[in-house]
């Protein structure tokens, strides 16, 4: 364990982490970090917040918490790592254990020997072959210079209209940044929804909120052409023929792993198209490791291979790489459960594990519950959370959890991620001892209540129907008897407006003659969040009705509500 | 399973939950809820926030989220539960399965038959036998009328000085409420620290913050006498002779379970003095269940019996009781891990599992790590978190976690609670996939970083020393060589002031001759949060020094720092 030469290719997230940790584990190691871009260790997840003006100091993206810029000198002095920027690795000679590089600033080129090599080559945004994509004004957001340009456009005040192509996580973050900067923003998404990690009806709540901020969302639509004049973008033409005038378009439709270096060196590429690694993050060459957005890892739930280009995983993977290079291949990276969260204007939206759709696609037999309730007691300034829990129908194991709302989504999704990783069932969570005090949560935490609801469904006590399915019934004209058990004042304030009947829960036991007297008639109950809706279901079933369902999440989770 | 008579004794938290859930599970059940107090289903955890003026509507403590007061009529109409207030149960006749009651408002008394009985008799604040405790102005905080009285005193503007006796969770919440109302507050605590669920050095950070708000904290002190004139409190005399003039004293030194009813009925009382129940929450009489602040449950970590009077557990226990009464004794309540959290002015303080002290008392061989770092990236308005993780030295299993700071403590403690419940090790958490985006967390979440630090310690790579132990060394005059590796500007802003030497990390490799040349000399390194301190340790060890320790948590966790 002495004086081994370690070369790390890539200086964004995984690379610097692997290099610095390796040096900390073995001060005698000779660690070199080769970075193609001019910057090192960029906080690229922060680009949208820089663009949106959340902060003004560009250097904050490139500096330590105490304000020291992470440049070559910093890596040399503080980390003992030889970092070289503007330095692209062009080839790996595995037989002789060398890499070839060229420096785009100085023109220098050469080779460097290694004992261990780490590939952290990252990923590149997809650029679809659409006419006009090379016009000035059509951009991605992956490099510091993209962030610089978009920030410059924001500060210029000269951009009135922007189009975001792609309604995924980064697309939505950039949408908010530009809309907050005063631009009129349109979002174009090929799929029927934004944020594919959410199920459709949860994503619709996000879409409604984005729309309330003046953003126009075009789902099930795509870009057929970027339109321009004199090489400059003037508009985006959609597949349905609509033309949206705009000065800027940001294309954000996912990324592809940068694998050409690995491929040309003959390293194994995985089924997802990213670099294949074993559980120790080692490629098919035992002297070469890989981490970050260029690798393929395991999905911890399905056991299948996954491409999961997230900044947090890049750091954790890189740490495992360093441990294995220096201490022997003992550390294991178990993979991802696809935990994620984002801010969407006044909402947060997060998810972990599998969505219902994804779980069904993977072959699981699932049950789900939707819970719309507050994050704290009302007297503490409660805010709404709408969650959906997905569990395996046979075992009650929690497979996934989504949460959206102005309330504290962060804690909810973190709890759920821990539950999914640990294979907890809805019954495990139903008796969990989580921290409680009124400033922080309800006495029964929202996450626990969601598990209770799902437990009631699995045990056959609660028959639920999703609001999406209720909407379908209504749209088809087959409207069943819909029973709103809220108070009259709540009904005045907001209602479904689909012909529902109002009987407050407290009056229900004495108003059974106002219900369909055919005891097999379909009745759908709901309230604000469908807790009272569930109580109404229990009352009706006890009185002989056989086909009563609760509209899950109540009116607060209904994306089509009429507000008065 | 039909028309069984269920009587629930106690109408605060556990009682209403057990009654309502039992009725939902079996509409044919005849459920009666007997409540000694005039109110039902009080949100008693909210009392400090009502007293402190966080909200003004007293009814919010007694009403549903939609504003319906939970009175007898509400329970009858919405829950199908016959609730009776002002109704104290005075005896249980187990042979004949009846309870005797008296109504303090009407004078009515009688007996009621039951098939199943649930005891949710709660707990009563300790009232120490101190001279003057019955003076007007000496109060507890357990009933609605206590909250009413303290709120009235606040609103009167006539109280200038208040003394809180007891620096536990409720004491601190009331302290904040009264201080926020403009009173000068003193807190008196017999132990050497506030908030006993925290270890001493973490509690000192809270104490410093409380002090910064103008509150005087007297630790290792007690009340010898409540002093008064004409039956009214005028001051509190401490054991050390100090007299604190005050118009109000709130005594909050813990609660004792109300077990007299159970005891007189011959039910088994547990080792903690609370009602003994099995894992199904059933007492020694199979027809009688118990839940809430009157019962004894399991500690899930130690396996020992615990008295854990928390509002969230009361609700979860009561749900298990209802399930078992109606569906047969299948549901299990596994117990507590002592998760808790509270707001302390601008800080939050939370804990789950065992503190270091508690773990050692329980016979564990433990390792701990302290981590002071931010909750989010600096450019997102980061706030500090100071955490301490306690793990079993043999297995790395996380036994406990404490977190204090202005940052988002809530998510951290919730994650830790899930880890402790699941028996996760520091290595499990070191590769956890938790939700990340800059508005919500660091790329490597604070909780994960804490596990990394502790893993480094267990693996022998990092030798830590607590700030408490450094302070002891300094106070004893045996000051070792203390090395601050921060930047000069940071040193100017805040320093330990104990003769430490400043060598910024980036200069360290070229300044080794400024260190003690005896390679066995004790050197203690630190920085702002001791991440750089750890890097410095690695550098020094690689250069032959053998006795280098990192002061954990850095200067941000040092409660004795000199601010300039």
TrEMBL record, chains A, B:
GO terms assigned for molecular function: oxidoreductase activity
Source superkingdom: Bacteria
Assigned keywords, A-Z: FAD, Flavoprotein, Oxidoreductase, Redox-active center
Cofactor list: FAD
InterPro entries: FAD-bd_OxRdtase (IPR050260), FAD/NAD-bd_sf (IPR036188), FAD/NAD-binding_dom (IPR023753), FAD/NAD-linked_Rdtase_dimer_sf (IPR016156), Pyr_nucl-diS_OxRdtase_dimer (IPR004099), Rhodanese-like_dom (IPR001763), Rhodanese-like_dom_sf (IPR036873)
Annotated Rhodanese domain residues: 476-564
Family annotation (PANTHER family): NAD(P)H SULFUR OXIDOREDUCTASE (COA-DEPENDENT), PYRIDINE NUCLEOTIDE-DISULFIDE OXIDOREDUCTASE DOMAIN-CONTAINING
Family classification: Belongs to the class-III pyridine nucleotide-disulfide oxidoreductase family.
Protein name, UniProt field: Pyridine nucleotide-disulfide oxidoreductase
Species this protein is from: Pseudodesulfovibrio cashew
């Amino acid at each position: 364990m002495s004086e081994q030469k370690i070369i790390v290719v890539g200086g964004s997230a995984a690379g610097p982490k692997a290099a610095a940790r390796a040096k900390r584990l073995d001060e005698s190691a000779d660690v070199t970090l080769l970075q193609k871009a001019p910057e090192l260790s960029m906080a690229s997840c922060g680009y949208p917040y820089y663009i949106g003006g959340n902060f003004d100091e560009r250097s904050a993206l490139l500096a330590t918490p105490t304000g020291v810029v992470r440049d070559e000198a910093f890596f040399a002095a503080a980390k003992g790592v030889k970092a070289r920027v503007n330095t692209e690795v062009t080839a790996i000679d595995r037989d002789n254990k060398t890499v070839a590089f060229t420096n785009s600033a100085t023109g220098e080129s050469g080779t460097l020997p290694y004992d261990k090599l780490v590939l952290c080559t990252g990923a590149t945004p997809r650029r679809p072959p659409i006419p006009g994509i090379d016009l000035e004004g059509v951009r991605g957001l992956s490099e510091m210079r993209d962030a610089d340009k978009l920030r410059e456009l924001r500060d210029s005040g000269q951009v009135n209209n922007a189009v975001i192509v792609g309604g995924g996580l980064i697309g939505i973050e950039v949408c908010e940044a530009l809309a907050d900067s005063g631009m009129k923003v349109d979002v174009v998404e090929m799929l029927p929804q934004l944020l594919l990690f959410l199920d459709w009806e949860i994503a619709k709540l996000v879409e409604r909120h984005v729309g309330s901020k003046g953003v126009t969302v075009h789902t099930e639509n795509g870009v057929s052409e970027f339109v321009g004049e004199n090489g400059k973008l003037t508009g985006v033409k959609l597949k349905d023929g609509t033309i949206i005038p705009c000065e800027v378009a940001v294309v954000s439709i996912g990324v592809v792993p940068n694998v050409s270096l690995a491929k040309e060196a003959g390293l194994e590429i995985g089924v997802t198209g990213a670099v294949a690694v074993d559980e120790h993050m080692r490629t098919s060459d035992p002297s070469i490791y890989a981490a970050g957005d260029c690798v393929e890892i395991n999905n911890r739930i399905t056991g299948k291979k996954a491409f999961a280009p997230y900044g947090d995983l890049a750091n954790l993977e890189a740490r495992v790489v360093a441990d294995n290079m220096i201490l022997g291949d003992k550390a294991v990276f178990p993979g991802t459960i696809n935990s994620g969260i984002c801010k969407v204007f006044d909402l947060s939206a997060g998810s972990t594990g599998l969505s219902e759709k994804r779980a069904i696609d993977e072959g699981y037999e699932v049950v789900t519950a939707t819970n719309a309730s507050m994050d704290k007691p009302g007297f503490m300034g409660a805010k709404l959370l709408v969650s959906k829990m997905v569990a395996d129908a046979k075992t009650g194991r929690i497979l996934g959890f989504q949460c959206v709302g102005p309330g504290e989504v962060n804690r909810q999704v973190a709890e759920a991620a821990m539950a999914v990783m640990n294979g907890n069932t809805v019954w495990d969570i139903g008796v969990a001892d989580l921290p409680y005090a009124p400033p922080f949560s309800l006495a029964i935490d929202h996450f626990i209540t969601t598990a209770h609801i799902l437990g009631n469904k699995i045990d056959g006590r609660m028959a639920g129907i999703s609001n999406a399915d209720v909407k379908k019934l209504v749209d088809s004209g087959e409207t069943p008897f819909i029973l709103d058990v809220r108070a009259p004042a709540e009904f005045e304030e907001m209602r479904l407006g689909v012909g529902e009947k109002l009987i407050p829960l407290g009056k229900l036991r004495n108003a059974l003659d106002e219900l369909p007297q055919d005891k097999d008639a379909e009745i759908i109950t709901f309230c604000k969040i469908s807790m009272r809706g569930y109580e109404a279901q229990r009352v009706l079933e006890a009185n002989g009705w056989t086909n009563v369902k609760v509209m899950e999440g109540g009116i607060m989770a209904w994306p089509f509500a009429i507000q008065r």
